[in-house]
Amino acid sequence: MTTTEEQLEQAQQFERLKALVDKQYRWIDRKWDAVFWVSAAFIVGAACDITKLLFAGDWDFWTDWKDRIWWPILTPFALVIIGSALQYIQWLAWRFPTGMTYTAICLWPLATLGRWLQWGNFVHYPMNFVWPTTMVPAGIFADWVLFKTKSFILTSVIGSAVFAFGWWVSNYMMIAPYLQPAQWMDRILTVADIQGITFIHSQTPEYLRIVEHGTLRSFLGETQYVAIVFGATVTIAGYWIGQFIGRMLAIWPIGRFMKKW
Amino acid sequence: MMKRLAALLLLGMATTVAFASPASAHGEKSQEAFLRMRTIGWTDVVFSGGHKDANGDIVIAQGEKFTIKGVAKLMNTWPDTLAKGLPRIGYLNIATQGPCVALLERKINGISTPDRIEITKGNYYQFEDTLMGRRVGRWHVHPTFAVKGAGTLLGPGQWFRVTPHAFSTPATLYNGKTINLENYHLVSVWTLQVIGFLLGLIWIFWWTWWGKTAKGNPRRTVTNPAVTLAIPLNDDGLAVGLNTKKDHRVVNIIALATALFLLIGWIWQASAFPVKIPQQVVEYEPPKTNLDAAPTLAEVDARSAKYDYQAKLLRLEIDAKNVSSNPIELSQFVTSTLTFDNRSSGTTPSGPYQDTLKLAPTGTIQPGQTTTLTIDLPGSRFDEEHLLPKGESQLTISGLLVFKDAAGNKSSAEIEEPLQPHYTS
Lengths: 261, 425
Hints:
The structure holds two protein chains of two kinds.
Chain A: H1 3-21, H2 30-61, H3 71-94, H4 99-122, H5 127-130, H6 136-149, H7 152-175, E1 181-184, E2 187-190, H8 191-198, H9 223-260
Antiparallel strand pairs in A: 1-2
Chain B: H1 2-19, H2 33-39, E1 40-48, E2 51-52, E3 58-61, E4 65-74, E5 89-95, E6 101-108, E7 111-112, E8 116-118, E9 124-133, E10 137-147, E11 151-154, E12 158-163, E13 170-173, E14 178-180, H3 186-210, H4 225-228, H5 245-272, E15 283-284, H6 290-293, E16 298-308, E17 313-322, E18 328-335, E19 338-341, E20 354-356, E21 358-360, E22 370-378, H7 379-384, E23 396-405, E24 410-422
Parallel strand pairs in B: 3-12, 8-15, 16-24, 19-20
Antiparallel strand pairs in B: 1-4, 2-3, 4-9, 5-8, 5-10, 6-7, 6-9, 10-11, 10-12, 13-14, 16-17, 17-22, 18-19, 18-23, 21-22, 23-24
Helix pairs in contact in B: 3-5
């Protein structure tokens, strides 16, 4: 084909696509869009919650576990996985930079409802001791990075860092009141520590708590910032695990199925 | 077919409900008997506060305080299979059905102990827990001794009935302000969570509902692959009208609003809570007690431990040598949660975890004298507590023999002896 014919075909293809964007389908109206977004919400929220509980369970549950070392390393890593998979799927299929935010707003009501029903109403822990973390602001930032860069590689590097940092800021605001020192049993402890001691959890002895214990490699005491940077690095790994799930466990099998039928 | 399945399902559920009994224990009887006997010896456990009802339950109101005092001995017979035979970190706590009681103070060997302690085999740990009723209901409360690398061992329990009453769970901040742990800053947590959630909802609604295509039509979702699969992955569909410049402007605004929200939130927390510290980990070795320093009154050597299934009788034969300068007498045999008192020595059983032992010969052991003591223990009590290692991998009986002299001095000696069951067919 000559260059002119190629250009002509490209122009025709372009016009066909433009027409397809607004094409009205007879049997597939907007209620199918709503059916998808609403029905997928439960699966996406549950998948993210399970992943979070698998990798960062106790850190998400108790305020006395929400420390400045392990919490910002493990939780963003756990949260970004399903968000990343959804980001790939929704960008590939619809060009919507919504995967992270959608995952976040599916997760939050499910996690909160679960926490309230199981840990608040059933076992009677105060909700200010067992509140779940939020990934909504972090998810918005990661989706914004994808929309601006249109690149999963850049999103994995910049977006994951912004995700981890945004997650830390949005959740640190909530843990702040519980990090105040208080007098308790002849000691100075945080309010979070006191919650952990007062509201008995029989089968998890305190020594199982994995929080900052101190290290000689403390970087002039600025362990928090080191942990956040390391958390961002680990989140990049989590992002690509999510990409693998999205590409290989979701999209690739669908492609095989479509080709077969 | 469906009706049959539904009926079967309903029947199954009804059967489950009908035969299910409320959870009222914490698995203490499911742990192997020989391990429970060889690990912790619980003595002098006393629950006080409130008042007892006709069933023996202690009745307290929500917010009303009560105490649990006692002594836990980390036995020298601690098995090699738990914590590699060397228990090092322990945590004395409470086992009950969740936070139905709240812990206000915990002292171990006279020192306030919020967290874990460093422990040593053979040492005594005198504990005193101050708690308060929190959740209305009937609860079984045990002291516990958790050992890192081993698990949690339960002491004798007591039923509590918590009755309704207005209460709070107070704590005092560094600035002297008293807070209620039940709801402190819960509103702040929810407010911040909900604002973030609403921002996320706006983002999603823009992409699924409010946003339009370049031609101003409602944006579609499930039909988009017809377009998106025909353009490169790094193309945002701007040219074909899938997304628009307005989308870019709107997401910039939402991202900016989110950043502003975080900035305001950060300033709020920094000004509202200027003093913050990381979570604290308190670990220390409690001082030794008088019990640890008490002079030994007797040396013991177990000769036999026999169990008669028909008579439901556990008989221990012990050589006891008085190594003190005064006459002594056996006052108790303690194993795991059970205490057996020698009434002739002046001790009287009280509570569901205590009973009486029969001793022969009765009377005192003179200084320097060695006497073979025959101790008969009611096997039914061992049965009730699942403390007879009948079908376990180690048929042994372990425990503490507590001796005392006329001046009230006490010391305990550990025994460990293979159990010889007299089987009946």
